[in-house]
Structure formats: C-alpha cells, structure tokens
Design a protein that fits this description.
By secondary structure, this protein is mainly beta. It folds into 5 domains: 1-92, no CATH class; 95-146, no CATH class; 174-221 and 228-273 and 288-303, no CATH class; 328-355, no CATH class; 360-492, Jelly Rolls (Sandwich). It has 2 helices and 33 strands. The strands form 11 sheets. It has a 5-stranded antiparallel sheet with strand order 10-11-12-13-14, with no helix packed on it. The chain has a 5-stranded antiparallel sheet with strand order 25-22-33-27-30, with no helix packed on it. Strands 24, 26, 28, 29 and 31 form a 5-stranded antiparallel sheet that branches. It is rod-shaped, with a radius of gyration of 63 Å. The termini are far apart.
C-alpha cells in the first residue's frame, strides 16, 4: 500500500522547522511505502541493484516476451535470448532435460560414468572396477571395465604395469586383429608362449627357451622375415633326441652323415663344416662319430690334423678299415711313456707302453784280471760296447747287468784263461748273487776259452753276474782281448 500524508498544509500556514523534520523522519522511516507498490516501470539507468535477498515473480502464464527478460511461467523460470524464450530450470525438484543443458537425471551410480543411451538421452553406467581399462559398449550401450578374454579375465593396470589375462592356445591373451589364434599367452608359472595358428611355437620357461617347429628352424640373412624359407641354413629335428643342421638349403631330414642314435646328432650337408676357435666338448659316450663319405673302397671317414705351416694343407690322420670284424675302442695309457717305448695291447683293446725292442747292454774289460785259485770271483767290467737301458755302470757294481725293464733276456758271458794245464775251469751266470742260472765246466787246457749263456725272466731291479772259478793251484788271469772278457744281456719278445 502507498504511504499516508504526515501533515496537510493549508494556504497561509507557516512551515515550522519541527514540521519539516517530522516530514523527513516520516520518509526515512517509511521508505518502502514511497516505492511499493510500483505503479510503473523503474529504470535503473545502467546501475546495479545489489544486496537482494530474493526476487519474487508472479506467474505470468507465458514465457519471457523480450530480449534479456526473465519471467515466471507456472513452475518454470524462462529467459528470452533475443530469439526465443526458454526454460532456465525446472522448479519443484524436476531434473533439467538434456535439451536444456542438463542430464535429465535425478541420480547416478557411484563409480559409474555418464553416457548417451540414445540421442538426447543421458544415463549412468554401472560401477567401473578399480584399475581396469574402460571399453566402449557401442551404440546405446554403457561403457564397461576391462578387455574380456576367453577365460573371462580382463586387462588391468596396477603398480605401473599392464596385466594381461592368461588366454588359451585358441584365443591368446594378446592376439592379432586379423588372426585371433596368433599371439601371446601364459601357459604356466614362469612360462610365456608364442601362439601361431593355435599351436605353441616358442616358449620362455624360467631360464629356458623352447622352440617347436614341425619342419625346420631357419636363419634369414636379411630382408623381410616372410622370406625365411629362402634361407640356406636350417635346424631340423629328425626324431627324438636327434638334431640335424644343414647349410645347403635343405629343410628335410633325409641326410644322415652322423649315424648317431643317442642324444644329439649334428649333420652338416654341403661343403662347410664346424669352424671353432674353442674346444668342441661332449659328455656323451658316442661324442664324435665319422661315417663313410661314399660307398667305394677306401671311402671311410677320416680324422685329420693339419700341419702348423701357414696356410698349410698337409695333414696326418686316422681312418677305419673298409670292413671290421667287430667294434673296437682302444683305451689309452694313463700317462706318457719313456723314450723309445711303444704302444702295445693286452688283447682287450687296453693300450699300454711297452719297453723298446732294443733293450740291452754289452760290456767288456780292457785289462787282464787275476783270479785267485779255487775262489769264485765275479768278473768286473770297465767298458761298454752299448747300453740302451742304464743296465750297467762303470763306477758302481761294475760286475752287474741290472734289468731296469722287466722281461725275458738272453744272457751270454765269454772269458779266455791264461795258459795252464792243471785242474778245471768254470764260467757261471748268477742271478742276484744267489742263484746260479747257467754253468760251463772244462778240463784245463793251454789258453782255454769259455762261453756260457741262458735265457732269464727278470723283474725290474734283478741283476746277473758272470762268475769264474779255477783249480790251477795258483793265481790265473783272464786275458783281455778284442772279445774277452765279454758280458751281455738283450731283451727278447
């Protein structure tokens, strides 16, 4: 309602100060009565109206009618944008539609996302799993978490890693878009396999790498890997525990130069071989076998050792006879032999070092030797014609011939007596100073000569001596000559 007059003045009235102040106080205390209710429009002249508590609209029953005007229309607040009037919001708890910039939703799923379920319609997806990748659902469908595998597991993100499902041979976890049976899968604990055509081809299993191929594994020198078949180097699995390596372009398993049946077989078809700067080591019984290179006589495989000379082509080697009565493997001795020894077999393929064929000694004395009457005396020798096995010494035990190599020996002694015609003359061969091996006894004749000999089986360190005896009645000498006194032993057999 409008304000009332504070005082009515009549013509001729005097305006007192108290009356003027009373009028001012009235307007100060009743300012709203001056403005409310309005009977016309108010122009703010571009100034702001501030500190409003709220605006109250009457229901105009129509939308705003002019540019930049607000108007209440029923439960809606409308705004005119210069072209058409539209609703700013739904009053009374009604959601703002998509067409008006809202979602049309009064609630959504916690942990879900908004999506268009249809043109002009927004909906809430279901709960998205923590650390899962979001996958589009297609037209009208909600997004979901994870890339589903055949085993219904999903790709996940955790600790900075992209985690794949296990997958199967038919549907690997990581697969090609054009060939779903080609990719990677987890086979078992610490085992990752490469799948090709639904078949396991390559596996990393712990510290091992395993390769499966039904034909051959080939090496490509360059270019597109699809040209692998053009390689000339192939690794083939011929059968269980048999490996074939060819370098002639062959991918078949027909070549069989190794003739091996255990563990690993390496076959090099073509003209190349193994070229190694280190040892070729094997721990199997049949570690190294050479088969024949043809069917003609003499075409058995050979082991060759090349000469040291630069670019030398000469060699020595071993090869098998064309026909063998039986298998033979010779066992070598445990250590090196001594000078001039030779290899010998025991008849069971066990080899050992044998003494040289030339083992023996022949000694003589360069001066006459006086022999007492009726006294058996060992003849000493101060000179050697030969000694191949340290059998004799000219300084120690000069009467002895000592066997340093065991075996059978021919032992021969020869002496010539000075002139004398009385009694008997004896020449004897003794073993180790105790055992008489041979003796010759003759009746004294003037300047007699005697030869005594035997074959003795001597062990190492056994020794023989030539001993003489006479009954001339006085001392008698052994004459030194070109052949006397002479003593020898020679190994036989």
């Amino acid at each position: 309602m409008a304000g009332a007059r504070d005082r009515t003045f009549n013509a001729g009235d005097v305006l007192l100060a108290s009356q003027l102040n009373s009028v001012q106080d009235y307007f100060l205390n009743n300012a709203l009565l001056v403005l409310s209710p309005l009977t016309g429009s108010i122009d703010a002249a571009g100034f702001d109206i501030t500190a409003l508590d709220e605006l109250a609209f009457n229901d105009a029953a129509v939308n705003a009618s002019a540019t930049r005007r607000l108007r209440a229309n029923a439960a809606n607040l409308t705004w005119h944008d210069g072209t058409v009037a539209g609703r700013l919001f739904y009053a009374g708890g009604t959601d703002v539609p998509v067409a008006d910039g809202g979602t049309g939703l009064s609630s959504g799923t916690s942990g879900g996302v908004l999506y268009f379920s249809a043109t002009g319609t927004i909906a809430s997806s279901a709960l998205l799993t923590t650390n899962r990748l979001v996958r589009g659902g297609g037209a009208g469908a909600a997004p979901v978490t994870g890339i589903l595998s055949d085993d219904n597991t999903n790709v996940t993100l955790t600790s900075g890693q992209l985690l794949l499902p296990n997958g199967t041979d038919a549907l690997p976890a990581l697969a090609s878009t054009t060939q779903t049976n080609l990719g990677l899968r987890r086979l078992d604990t610490d085992v990752i396999v490469v799948i090709s055509g639904g078949t396991q081809k390559f596996a990393v299993a712990g510290t091992n790498v395993k390769i499966r191929t039904d034909t051959a594994l080939s090496w490509v020198s360059g270019g597109d890997l699809s040209n692998a078949i053009a390689s000339d180097l192939f690794l083939n699995r011929a059968a269980a525990n048999i490996l074939i390596l060819t370098n002639d372009g062959s991918t078949t398993n027909t070549a069989d130069l190794g003739r091996a049946t255990t563990r690993v077989r390496q076959i090099f078809a073509g003209t190349s071989g193994i070229d190694s700067t280190g040892p070729i080591v094997s721990s199997v019984q049949r570690a190294f076998e050479l088969g024949p290179f043809g069917t003609l006589a003499g075409q058995t495989g050979a082991t060759r050792f090349l000469e040291l000379a630069a670019n030398g082509t000469n060699y020595v080697g071993f090869k098998s006879a064309d026909a063998l009565a039986a298998n033979v493997i010779w066992t070598l001795p445990t250590a090196d032999g001594t000078a001039n020894q030779t290899l010998q077999t025991n008849g069971s393929a066990v080899l050992s070092w044998a003494a040289p064929l030339d083992i023996g000694a022949r000694v003589f004395n360069s001066a006459n030797i006086s022999i007492s009457n009726a006294t058996t005396t060992a003849v000493t020798f101060d000179s050697e014609r030969w000694d191949t096995d340290t059998i004799h010494s000219v300084s120690v035990n000069t009467s002895r011939l000592t066997a340093t190599t065991a075996g059978k020996y021919v032992v021969i002694g020869q002496v010539e007596w000075d002139s004398g015609t009385t009694g008997f003359r004896y020449a004897e061969i003794f073993l180790n100073g105790l055992t008489r091996l041979a003796v010759i006894r003759q009746i004294a004749v003037d300047s007699s000569q005697q030869v005594v000999g035997t074959i003795a089986n001597l062990a190492a360190a056994d020794y023989v001596e030539l001993r003489v005896h006479h009954t001339q009645g006085a001392a008698l000498s052994l004459i030194a000559s070109a052949q006397n006194p002479d003593f020898m032993m020679q190994k036989i057999g």
